[in-house]
């Protein structure tokens, strides 16, 4: 199977993540999307992150009922910080019957050459890049690899930061994420302190 690896902080997961994942399965030929909650992204501060258990619970609620979406806990077993090359290599070793592809936004693609062992990722894994408003991808960019796909997925400008800020100000943020995730946030009083 061709598996899309969608790794992120998911702080919280929202409708934009799910629309992109659904598009990649339905229109770009991926059989499944494996959502991975990163315990620590090397480029982000851990201070603003909710506890892993809450972020994992929200991802599981968000993808429940979609047979093409899976939660994968691989990064919780690996050393910190969470490097993508380590995650992809471990997945390939543990599940050799599958082909793993990396899913990233255009914003991350523009700084991809700063990632740890980025050339090894390019040489060994397909990369699916989804568009982000304000991040134009230069087709003449010198990074080359196994298979780089610039997808035509919808541009969804919902951010986890926007959701956290809205909740902290007492705004109704229900329509930015699955209702089950929003109920979880409210029942656990998450993000409700002023940011």
In short:
This protein is of the alpha/beta class. The chain has seven helices and six strands. The protein is globular and about 45 Å long.
Number of helices: 7
Overall pLDDT score: 92
- Strand neighbour order, sheet with most strands: 3-2-1-4-5-6
**Count of beta strands:** 6
Structure description:
- With 195 residues, the chain is α/β, with parallel strands linked by helices.
- The chain has helices spanning 15-27, 52-63, 84-94, 106-109, 118-124, 160-168, 179-187, and strands at residues 2-8, 32-37, 69-72, 99-105, 126-130, 147-150.
- Strands 3-2-1-4-5-6 form a six-stranded parallel sheet, sandwiched between helices.
- Strand 1, helix 1 and strand 2 form a beta-alpha-beta unit.
- Helix 2 (52-63) packs antiparallel against helix 7 (179-187).
- The chain is globular, with a radius of gyration of 16 Å.
Search tags:
195 residues, globular, 33% helix, 6 strands, single chain, alpha/beta
Q: Mind sketching the topology for me?
A:
Layout: E1 2-8, H1 15-27, E2 32-37, H2 52-63, E3 69-72, H3 84-94, E4 99-105, H4 106-109, H5 118-124, E5 126-130, E6 147-150, H6 160-168, H7 179-187
Parallel strand pairs: 1-2, 1-4, 2-3, 4-5, 5-6
């Amino acid at each position: 199977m061709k598996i899309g690896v969608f790794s992120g902080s998911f702080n919280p997961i929202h409708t934009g993540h799910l629309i992109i994942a659904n598009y990649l399965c339905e229109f770009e030929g991926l059989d499944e999307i494996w959502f991975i909650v990163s315990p620590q992204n090397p480029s982000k501060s851990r201070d603003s992150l909710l506890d892993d258990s809450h972020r994992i619970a929200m991802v599981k609620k968000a993808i429940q009922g979609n047979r093409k979406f899976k939660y994968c806990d691989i990064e919780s077993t690996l050393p910190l910080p969470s490097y993508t090359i380590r995650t992809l290599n471990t997945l390939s070793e543990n599940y050799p019957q599958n082909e793993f592809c990396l899913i990233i936004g255009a914003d991350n693609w523009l700084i991809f050459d700063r990632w740890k062992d980025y050339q090894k990722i390019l040489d060994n894994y397909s990369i699916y890049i989804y568009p982000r408003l304000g991040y134009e991808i230069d087709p003449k960019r010198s990074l080359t690899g196994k298979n780089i796909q610039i997808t035509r997925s919808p541009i969804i400008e919902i951010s986890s930061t926007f959701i956290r800020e809205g909740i902290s100000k007492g705004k109704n943020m229900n329509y930015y994420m699955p209702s089950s995730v929003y109920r979880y946030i409210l029942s656990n009083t998450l993000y409700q302190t002023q940011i």
